[in-house]
Fold:
Amino acid sequence: MNTETPAPPPPHAQAGACAYLLHVLLQEAERRQAGFIGTVIAGVVRDHQSIPGDIPEKPLVDAIFEETLRILRHANEPFGPPALEPAPRPRG
Structure:
């Protein structure tokens, strides 16, 4: 039985994995229901417009909505995500 603690993942690996998974799920939802991502984009835009302009956290809120829209628009592109480098082979 191996009792060694596995090495921690590279920085930001978990965030990258979540972004990739979200992208795949959005594209699958779009494949099953054409227009799904466009509907979500429209809802996000409406939500963003409903945020009062004078809240103290406005710059952070704006950045969150901008990134959300970037992710959605990227998933809505007809050619999908950019090609990724092959994953490294495990050393054995």
Notes: The radius of gyration is 18 Å.
